[in-house]
Design a protein that fits this description.
This protein is of the alpha/beta class. It is about 40% helix and about 15% strand. The chain has a seven-stranded mixed sheet, sandwiched between helices. A five-stranded mixed sheet has the order 1-11-12-10-9. A hairpin with a 2-residue loop joins strand 11 and strand 12. Helix 1 (about 5-25) runs parallel beside helix 3 (about 50-65), helix 6 runs parallel beside helix 13 (about 340-375) and helix 7 (about 135-150) crosses helix 9 (about 175-185).
Amino acid sequence: MSTIKKDLALFNELAEVLINDEQHNPVAKRIESSQLFDSIDLSLSEEAMIDEDFKSVLSEILLATPKTATNLFFNQLFGGRQSKAVLGDLLAVLLNNSMYTYKVAGPQVGIEQEIIKKSCQLIGYGPKSNGTFPTGGSMSNYMALVMGRDAKDQDCRSKGMTKPLIIYTSVESHYSNAKNASFAGIGRDNIRFIDADDEGKMIPEQLEAQIVEDILNGGIPTYVNATAGTTVLGAFDPIDKIADITEKYNLWLHVDGAYCGSVLFSKKYKHHLKGVERSNSFSYNAHKMLGTPLTCSIILVRDKQHLHNSFNNDASYLYQTDGDDFNLGKTSFQCGRRNDALKFWTLWKSVGSKGLEQIIDQQFDLANVALDYIRNNPDYTLYSFDNSIGVCFNYKNVDPKALCTALYEQKETVVGFGSFKKDTFVRFVTINATNSPKDILNFFKVLEAFVEKNPNLLKVTELSL
């Protein structure tokens, strides 16, 4: 048997071990970080490891790694496992193509372009649109900012920053916006954080007032980042109203839909993106609501010329055949780039757009199960709202930080906490579409039983009930 066949057989054996263990132990046993290197042999040495020992340590690592695909993982903005997408990712690893030229990627270029074309059509971008696959939501936001910067100051690419450019985003937006302002040379001091309303949505009137103030002070308003699914509450900024303002003052509008932009596939929930066709760029992560393996991020641009203007650079040693439309390195931030499109394509191809719609709708259905349970139980306080897959609550008067930490450390369930304005609470995310209503209700059963059994373990806080 060849080496690759032996290793694939080992992979299948280890995968079966992991999947079987997930069924019986959905939360991995936690290893204290201070004890990690003493608990598992992660050392690298001069000598080769014999096969049985190698298999043993791999198995040990797999079983100790946090399990993100089980019915008790609610911590991150991703979860679950869509099997057809896993298949595509495994095939992409075997093929090992880089996506910068048609010469080395062949039909994989067509797969990426088909996803981009269909996505542009779904959000209402016209025939000049295009896009690319960045490494994640943060990089999508960065690429959008660079394009917005270059559109406002066309000499910036060659001469550097020479104008006082100002950018805008919500106080509830992703933390990458502040970093990106620094990376793009605009500067953290030149980002304006606009207040959010009581549901976590950017307030358009305050955005416009800030733009007017900056113009009066000699600044150059350049770019607005709107959010389709804020990290904590899952709120959707009012894109249509924000677009009225960006068009009035000639600013680039980017819609960061990394978390919840995939509602574009749902007839029932797509209204949250009303006005997105007026944006200059839009991004969403298929590795979040659609359940593909990490990472699978897409940024779309209404006018593809901006991708060329900001990211194209000739390299004769790379671009030797075919045209620009098939040499994707001319519109991407990276040169060498793994194939993140195939896993999304295998999922989309196998279930169709209707299947993707069902995946999205299922998550909102699960959130509604959680909302109904909380609203009908006086021991809970609800902090979130309808039409979000992030359900934020507190139980009795238990400190949410202590509760989430104890649940994790005691191997009960994995869930995080968040804050909005002056409140801190458990943030329960129903993003795993392979879960059922029974799994959602089981989470609350696990939480309540844990609190009952561990009254002295949890710090009590004064929460208004």
